[in-house]
From TrEMBL:
Keyword match Manganese: no
Record-annotated Sigma-54 factor interaction domain positions: 386-616
PROSITE patterns tied to this protein: CBS, PAS, SIGMA54_INTERACT_1, SIGMA54_INTERACT_2, SIGMA54_INTERACT_3, SIGMA54_INTERACT_4
Organism whose genome encodes this protein: Desulfosporosinus meridiei (strain ATCC BAA-275 / DSM 13257 / KCTC 12902 / NCIMB 13706 / S10)
Keyword line: ATP-binding, CBS domain, Coiled coil, DNA-binding, Nucleotide-binding, Transcription, Transcription regulation
InterPro entries: AAA+_ATPase (IPR003593), AAA_lid_NorR (IPR058031), CBS_dom (IPR000644), CBS_dom_sf (IPR046342), Homeodomain-like_sf (IPR009057), HTH_Fis (IPR002197), P-loop_NTPase (IPR027417), PAS (IPR000014)
Molecular function GO terms recorded: ATP binding; sequence-specific DNA binding
Residues in PAS domain copies: 129-174, 246-297
Designated name of the protein: PAS domain S-box
Gene Ontology biological-process annotations: regulation of DNA-templated transcription
Length: 697
């Protein structure tokens, strides 16, 4: 009905029986219309007076005063005002009449449809449809080619250009057979046959082709050819089936085991619960999912494990009057804690409870002996265990040995995944504090509202939900040992000032207490951020930075110490052989070359993940190229550091570095300690660079 509205002239006048020819002429002159509806006494359409009626009257010698009645057209063609667009378009094409009255359901004339206006309206709609159709075709992922009845290409969308490697400007108005000679359109264009699901290969791309003839008025006017690239589809289908199978297996296993399982995200909200746990809580899974764990189990500590990343195993609890053996394990993804899993064993017999207690005691003994064994390692053995043969790592090992004997604070810097935590642990094990605890705090993983309680502990009643007996903080637990503050750059500003006091005075108070606690603890910190930039942006305290950066150890990224890639790879192969109980003997030369040529943005952590994946795929024998992930195989080769272009680039960097050192020394008045702090370098590294650039200060 949109077409009718656009093509109808609403300006209309009417005649009645007995009206004069002169009145009709005035209406024709005023409204510029071809016909005038003549109404009966009830206002309904009776007949029409057309221009041809006027011409007949003139030929008969009638004057303007004569009446119109003898010249009226009685066989009136009219259309309804609710006629569908397709019927209206067909009427315009088939009708010989130039204008017709438009009537409503009551038979009243509401306008005149002029064929000329209607043709222009159809033409405008056709242009709009063509633009819309082209936009729709170009937005499709599939390729589409349209041809006329002679097989000449009239349209080629962006998808077809991408899949087939054709360009629209050189393909339009050319025979389809010249472009794709192995695809025959004759059955569709001659016989009107529809071809669905044809397998076709072009430019090493496998695709499915559908060919459909276009018919207008029963005649074949052309055809549409649709191409669907199967490469991505086949890969997605395989991955989807694998995921479906894994999900089905996971759901089956989860719900047939007798233990209760509940999972939370990093904020403590429940994301999964199995049927056994839901039955124990007398709740449906729908009532549990999305709620905070403390809303379901008030005394739960699962959200704390999701925050701290510290597992808690085999704890005997009584929930709803029933004894449970509870374990809480953090979920770690790419080195970050993203949630936690709680497992509850429902022992029904005293013997089962006794067995669980014995197992827990045995695990405690094993952990104790392992810790004692680790503590008894000599400094030389600890350093030897650090994997790395590059010049940078050899120098780092020497620095670890030197700083381990000190009590000074150490700031370990380097990109994510370079092994900063391992260096911190090595410093602890090589120090005279190795018999004491090594306590790690991930400043980015613990929520801001909990980190102060975790660091300093609290007393009973310090805040809502605080344990009645209070709780010691990490600083207190680390007394006599080492406290490692990972991701120190993410520590809230409010806590930074309190940490500064600990660094200065080695004392603090628990939350809710006025009693000062003194500790003997060495603090190591690590970050992948530029703390100096954080100071300028007001995100990190300058005084805390200088307290932390007494000694700086920098871990270069893996791409700058490629000599370590091969020994690290063999170390990880040995590690995962033990964990997965497999027998991978080594790695093929071309696979190792690929590892050496890759840039490793994720550093050692990414290399470890790649080797773990490859070991899983290989199972035995050598790791091959096919066992490596696609992004390594498809990555551009790392630039040869000996190329002339790169040497020029390194010379530019060296020049910039030399100028920075000179400016820092001038700003510090020649004081090398101050200059080293301005450059975020250790004194020993500054001296090395002074020798390197032959600077005399």
């Amino acid at each position: 009905m949109m077409l009718l509205k656009d093509g109808t002239n609403p300006r209309i006048s009417y005649l009645n029986l007995g009206d004069s020819i002169g009145k009709a002429v005035r209406i024709f002159m005023e409204l510029k219309i071809a016909i005038i509806p003549v109404l009966n006494g009830e206002g309904g359409l009776l007949s029409i007076f057309s221009r041809s009626s006027l011409y007949r009257a003139i030929l008969d010698g009638a004057t303007h005063k004569d009446i119109i009645d003898p010249y009226l057209i009685q066989e009136v063609i009219s259309i309804s005002d609710d006629i569908p667009d397709d019927q209206l378009a067909n009427f315009v094409k088939m009708s010989q009449v130039g204008s017709v009255p438009v009537v409503n359901r009551e038979g009243k004339v509401v306008g005149l449809l002029c064929k000329a206006n209607m043709v222009m309206t159809l033409f405008r709609h056709s242009e709009l449809l063509n633009v819309q159709l082209k936009a729709i075709l170009d937005s499709m992922h599939n390729g589409v080619i349209a041809v006329d009845s002679h097989g000449i290409v009239t349209h080629l969308n962006i998808g077809a250009s991408r899949i087939l490697g054709l360009k629209a400007d050189t393909s339009l108005n050319r025979p389809f057979q010249q472009l794709l000679p192995k695809l025959d359109l004759t059955p569709a264009l001659v016989n009107g046959e529809v071809k669905i699901g044809l397998r076709y290969r072009h430019r090493n791309v496998t695709m499915v082709v559908n060919i459909t003839p276009l018919k207008i008025g029963g005649n074949i006017a052309g055809g549409i050819v649709i191409f669907q690239d199967l490469t991505d589809l086949e890969q997605a289908a395989r991955e989807l089936e694998t995921v479906k199978a894994l999900n089905k297996t996971f759901d089956t296993v989860l719900n047939i085991i007798q233990d209760g399982i509940i999972v939370v995200d990093e904020t403590g909200k429940t994301t999964l619960i199995n049927q056994a746990m839901a039955d124990f809580l007398t709740l449906t899974p729908q009532e549990v999912i999305g709620k905070h764990i403390t809303e379901i189990i008030e005394s739960s500590r699962l959200h704390l494990v999701a925050s701290s990343g510290i597992l808690e195993t085999s704890e005997v609890l009584t929930i709803r009057g029933k004894p449970l053996i509870v374990s809480r394990l953090p979920i770690i993804k790419e080195g970050e804690v993203v949630g936690a899993v709680g497992k509850a064993v429902f022992p029904q017999l005293a013997e089962v409870r006794e067995l669980a207690e014995k197992i827990r005691l045995l695990e405690n003994k094993v952990n104790f002996f392992q810790e004692e064994l680790q503590k008894n390692k000599t400094a030389q053995e600890v350093i030897k265990d650090i994997v790395g043969e590059s010049t940078e790592m050899k120098k780092l090992k020497e620095e670890i040995t030197l700083v381990a004997s000190s009590r000074s604070t150490v700031l370990i810097t380097g990109e994510s995944g370079t092994g900063k935590e391992g260096v911190a642990h090595a410093i602890h094990l090589c120090s005279d504090r190795c018999q004491g605890p090594f306590i790690k705090v991930n400043c980015a993983a613990i929520p801001e509202n909990l980190i102060e309680a975790e660091m300093f502990g609290y007393v009973s009643g310090a805040f809502t939900g605080a344990a009645k007996a209070g709780k010691p903080g990490r600083l207190e637990i680390a007394n006599g040992g080492t406290l490692f503050l990972d991701e120190i750059g993410d520590m809230p500003m409010a806590l930074q000032s309190k940490l500064l006091r600990v660094l200065q005075d080695r004392e603090f108070e628990r939350l809710g207490s006025t009693k000062t606690i003194k500790v003997n603890v060495r603090i190591l910190a690590a970050t992948n951020k530029n703390l100096y930039q954080g100071i300028s942006e007001g995100e990190f305290r300058a005084d805390l930075y200088y307290r932390l950066n007494v000694i700086n150890l920098h871990l270069p990224p893996l791409r700058e110490r490629t000599d370590d890639i091969q020994p690290l790879t063999h170390f990880f192969i040995t590690k995962f052989n033990k964990i997965l109980k497999l027998n991978v003997s080594g790695i093929a030369d071309n696979a190792m070359k690929t590892l050496l040529n890759y840039s490793w943005p994720g550093n050692i952590r990414e290399l470890e993940n790649v080797v773990e994946r490859a070991v899983n795929y290989s199972r035995c024998g050598l790791l091959l190229l096919e066992h490596l992930p696609n992004h390594l195989l498809n990555s551009s080769p790392r630039e040869n550091p000996l190329s002339a272009g790169n040497i020029r680039h390194q010379e530019k960097i060296a020049g910039i570095e030399r100028d920075m050192i000179v400016r820092a020394l001038e700003k510090a008045g020649g004081n090398k300690t101050k200059a080293a702090k301005l450059l975020n370098l250790s004194r020993s590294r500054l001296y090395d660079k002074l020798d390197k650039y032959d600077l005399k200060y």
